[in-house]
Amino acid sequence: MLDDEQQFSLWPVRAEYVSGLSMILCSMEPWLTMEYTPEAFEFYLLHADPALARHVVMIAGEVAGILSLRNPWLFGPLIELLALFDGFRNKGIGGTIVEWVGKRYKAENLWVTVASFNLAALRFYKRAGFEKTATLENLIKPGWNEVLLRKRVGQIDKS
Questions:
Q1: Which band of pLDDT confidence, cut at 50, 70 and 90, is reported for residue 7?
Q2: How many CA atoms lie within 13 A of 34 on its CB side?
Q3: Which of 57, 71, 146, 148 has the most CB atoms around it within 10 Å of its CB?
Q4: Which domain holds residue 86?
Q5: What sign has the CA pseudo-torsion 1, 30, 116, 81?
Q6: Measured distance CA(119)–CA(156) in Å, rounded
Q7: Domain count, the chain
Q8: Measured CA distances, 24 to 32, 51, 70, 139 (Å)
Q9: How far is Cα 115 from Cα 81, in angstroms, rounded to an integer?
């Protein structure tokens, strides 16, 4: 868990920061292996989509990562993108963000998809209470599968 000095805040993604954020994301797994381009991330972070909320994760005044949430999506939000940058991983921040999403949306389900080869992310979401729901074969690229994970309402604190 984060201490009081490291509580995260979310800020809307601003156009002037998208190029730098996109470069960082392209250098991280799983997107490095999947050969995402900065242009693809720039489009994703900037295109108009009323069901997609894109945020910069801030901790103590520093950019710590990105969170994108699609809502509504199958009776609950879909975490489309949760990426924490170097220096902010393995500190409880990701778990705190997942808890916040569950409390914020008070939904029946909380969803995420993870590349099947991204074992660290699969372990993280399992620890956060997600269960495998389906394998989406050849979703991003032939031969690459995505795992659809769900955290059920009974596992989300609605207080």
A1: confident
A2: 25
A3: 57
A4: 4-155
A5: positive
A6: 23
A7: 1
A8: 10, 24, 22, 23
A9: 12
